[in-house]
């Protein structure tokens, strides 16, 4: 399996909505998908169609070493296995951060318990970078998508954190979300961001703004179902296609690579148990 972290350096980037949409689109392409909420805001479940915010999840396993994190999992209508963060108080959130700081392999060990096939994928929705949750996700990720709107503050914070992000995950891509090309300011900000990133990290993925997105969420539907021919739907499908192709290429590369050691027996844990 592969792990893909979705991170952001500013709030309000649409990262959680994008994580949920990509999880569903990849599941519809036949992938086994786990959407893991590693953000104390605990909102990914709402985006995936879960009626109530889950009270238990990863946070409770962080607070109590005897609690199994996979005891609280959900599966949505599209077959995405969802792992919530769980609800925490301010004090509990501080304790979670302290444990993550003390155990830098905690999330990696948790992901190792998943019994996904080779072509399966885990999408990690993280707290805003820098944070312990984002650091853990980047450390585990085979690919990191940094989501940013083309706004001055968001892009400025991204540029300021770019070196640290690259150091945390070598395979980093930028996703420009909520693009409104008719706004002159956004075009200027994109030009500035492109110059700061340089040739080594092109702005390859863009998702346009669509005011119908919140309405689809309120109805419990998806924009790409309600308005499949809209620009934003086209962008989301294109990004999902790109990820699907990346996953397939990664699998092919693994099969073509020489064996580095003896094969390991498959894990038998059930992630939904």
TrEMBL record:
PANTHER family: P-LOOP CONTAINING NUCLEOSIDE TRIPHOSPHATE HYDROLASE, PARA FAMILY PROTEIN CT_582. Gene3D superfamilies: P-loop containing nucleotide triphosphate hydrolases (3.40.50.300). NCBIfam families: cellulose_yhjQ (TIGR03371). This is Cellulose synthase operon protein YhjQ. The gene is yhjQ.
């Amino acid at each position: 399996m592969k792990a893909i972290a979705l991170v952001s350096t500013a709030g309000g980037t649409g990262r959680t909505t994008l994580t949920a949409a990509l999880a569903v689109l990849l599941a519809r392409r036949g992938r086994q998908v786990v959407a893991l909420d590693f953000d104390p805001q605990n909102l990914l479940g709402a985006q995936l169609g879960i009626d109530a915010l889950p009270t238990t999840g990863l946070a409770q396993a962080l607070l109590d070493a005897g609690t199994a994190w996979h005891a609280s999992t959900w599966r949505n209508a599209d077959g995405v296995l969802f792992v919530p963060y769980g609800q925490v108080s301010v004090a509990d959130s501080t304790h979670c951060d302290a444990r993550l700081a003390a155990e830098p392999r905690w999330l990696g060990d948790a992901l190792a318990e998943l019994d996904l096939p080779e072509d399966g994928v885990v999408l990690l929705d993280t707290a805003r970078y820098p944070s312990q949750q984002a650091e853990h996700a980047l450390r585990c990720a085979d690919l990191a998508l940094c989501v940013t709107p083309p706004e001055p503050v968001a892009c400025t914070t991204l540029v300021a954190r770019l070196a640290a992000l690259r150091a945390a995950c070598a395979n980093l891509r930028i996703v420009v979300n909520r693009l409104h090309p008719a706004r002159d300011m956004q075009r200027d900000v994109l030009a500035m961001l492109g110059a700061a990133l340089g040739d080594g990290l092109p702005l390859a993925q863009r998702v346009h703004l669509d005011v119908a997105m919140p309405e689809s969420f309120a109805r419990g539907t998806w924009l790409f179902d309600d308005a499949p021919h809209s620009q934003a739907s086209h962008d989301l499908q294109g990004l999902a296609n790109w990820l699907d192709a990346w996953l397939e290429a990664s699998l092919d590369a693994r099969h073509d690579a020489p064996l580095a050691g003896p094969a390991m027996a498959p894990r038998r844990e059930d992630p939904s148990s």
